[in-house]
Predict the structure.
Amino acid sequence: MQAFLALEDGKIFKGRSFGSTGERTGEVVFNTSMTGYQEIVTDPSYKGQIVVMTYPLMGNYGVNKDDAESRRPFLEGFVVKEYSKIASNWKKEKLLGEYLAENNILGMEGIDTRELTLHIREKGAMKAVLSTQDHDEASLVKKAKSSRGLVGIDLVKEVSIPKKYNYAHNKDAEYKVAVLDCGVKYNILRELVRNNCQVVVLPAQATYEEILGSGADGLMLSNGPGDPAAVAYVVKTVNKLIGKIPIFGICLGHQMLGLALGGSTYKLKFGHHGANHPVKDLRTGRVSITSQNHGFCVDIDSLSKKDIELTHVNLNDGTLEGFCHKKLPVFSVQFHPEASPGPHDAEYLFAEFSKLMRKSKKRKH
Amino acid sequence: MPKRKDIRKILIIGSGPIVIGQACEFDYSGTQACKVLKQEGFKIILVNSNPATIMTDPEVADKTYIEPITAATVEKIIAKERPDALLPTLGGQTALNTTVELAEKGVLKKYRVETIGANIKAIKKGEDRQLFKAAMEKIGLDLPKSVRAYNMEEALGAAQKIGFPLIIRPSFTLGGVGGSIAYNLEEFKGLAKRGLESSMISEILVEESVLGWKEFELEVMRDLKDNVVVICTIENFDPMGIHTGDSITVAPIQTLTDKQYQLMRNAAIACIREIGVETGGSNIQFAVHPETGRMVIIEMNPRVSRSSALSSKATGFPIAKIAAKLAVGYSLDEIPNDITRSTPACFEPAIDYCVVKVPRFTFEKFSLAKNTLGISMKSVGEAMAIGRTFKEALQKGLRSLEIKKFGLESIVFDNLQDIKVENGLLDRISQKLREPNAERVFYIADAFRAGLDIEKIYELTKVDRWFLHNIREIVDCERELLKNKHNLSGELLKKAKEYGFSDRQLAKLLSLSETEVCALRKSMNIVPDFKLVDTCAAEFMAHTPYFYSTYDK
């Protein structure tokens, strides 16, 4: 079926649909990962966004139940150059298109994705509508313009879980970690378990008392969608928790921590979405190739005088990628040490979190 | 780490005469290295016996010796020139072997020449089968299972332990009798007996066969700070059993999930660290079982290789140039990416197109050679093509071979309008699919034309179903063109161009002249656009003008 992608600045792309049909609005962003479309499709951080893949051939290896990063896809649309009608891999259970259709997600193929990417690079990420219903260009552009976008919108409440649950009952685990689910990717939970943690997942709205009452040795502030400034309630809770419990923030978690420490955030032109961003650990000089997915960023200058040590920096554009508190057990990174998709170079940060919890436990006893 | 100041004069060994398996790719890498090191202010001494190379042009090195590449000659050059360092990793296997010989004869020690790039220990660990196996076992990587046997009883025990099919490799044979393959016990008994007899020490290696497994390659770079990046990933169209140099290869990897690929990436990084290649590039090969997913490491080349030249052109990342800079002390984060200028070379290229390399054979020039393919390389060259789809890149690559094929054209059927599958034809096609040969990709397309399905062709070729599906799409498009030749729509013609059909190929299918096809598509506004190879999938502004044509508008 014919599908239209209309951007708020009037640019139109015509292609074919795969997956579901219908109409959805969102912010268009491009992702440069060459593998890992299933992880991208199921990453809750893409809530409110239409993702265009720069690598042209997608769907080649199908989807399987082990590679999902959350309970279902949350993104608004998935745009590729060529969708593969067969899937070839020993783990494949379904075609990507079937999976998208089951979850009511629109897929679009057959457009010049490089042209779209260049457009976003030049003009910035922008609001758009993806539709198989409406073929009237003027009407589509109007819909794109009037869509809600990301700025100031709380998307976390749309992806977080309603009730707390135990992810893994690992009785022999050395630490108990409370994960504040702002749209958490499963691989963060898996990495915590691999690092000897028992994991309890709490809704983003969980209160200070609920978090400390869970008996956790550490708090993980998860990744999640949208604008960190729109989740003031989490920032407030985090602000109270700083110094009370070791905290590790990832992506949106890092941004919320930055805000809680008095820093500020801003929106990047088109963000970082991919699996090849070099990040330098300023403490060791070593470079990790990292997985990234963020449209907002903590202002590197806003934190510089507040007992904060900058620990990681992006070598491509010099933006802030990580910091820690000089006195309190708090650290965070903008990129995704849990990878999935992407390189495992920064896995070491989960071990650092365990170390932090160990230190803090010792002090208590 | 900044540039080293303690070395001034560097000796570079070229790759010598052009032979099968060692051709102009090493001229390309050697020339890049000479140029960049000269720019960095080093004095470059070059030795290469082949004057028909770019690197022996007068301005490339400071001093060029056109002499045989033997340890004895190179020793004389070292004695005369007294270089501080020797860079052995850019001239292929010849340079590497000569360097090892120089080290073993004590020449390097005598004249205090330091090897940069890879040290002798690392070269040996990467090249010697036993040392390599031990090193990989040490870091927990899986290899094809193998057992040494000295008599029939041990051989049979090994066969039982590993399971069929099996490779039997006799050790120390006169005249170098190669390995053989046994599919069952009966065959094994005969071959093992013959193997034991042909070995001077009555020793055979009984090895698990990975024939028909999926084959992958990673191009990896490491610097003195121990940063490691993967420059390019490659999936072989032809499965294990056909030399990579004779295989159609594709970049990037197409049929692995991210989880599967990352395990391979981790293994490659562990491998380059354990082998101890300090700086520069290595090529690491893996085989993956298509049904179980079991991954084994096959080999690593601790040097710039044929695949590095391909990877450089496929990604826009100049591997040899960067390898030379790393060898003299720079780290990856200190070297700018030439293409973006604003970002560092310490990253992994993201590409937004598909690259296909097809080997070029000249069996007509070697009348005694069989055109079947196996584990020793027979191709004399290759063509690389870039497209937005695998189909486009494959067809562009095939017509670049200059073998009078203008895409994936038939070699069996003269008249595609009226395909007759005569007696014996299916047998002939099946035979050509089963036994790897220089024209197999054409026979695969003809098998689809003759009505075979993906499963049947997979069973015969073990070429991954994803590749087969793409070839079938080319054949289906061809059928559609034939069917609609008199009322051709713009949509269909656009699709054919996106699938990589050339105007000449289309002319034949549509019974038009090439000029008429060209005029027709122009009238439908179907024209090529030129896209940049920029290492970053358009994320950053690119400055190097390196383009490919495609139909994507």
User: Anything to note?
Assistant: The mean pLDDT of chain A is 96. Chain A has ten helices and 19 strands. The first helix of chain A runs from residue 37 to 41. Chain A has two domains: 2-146, 156-364.
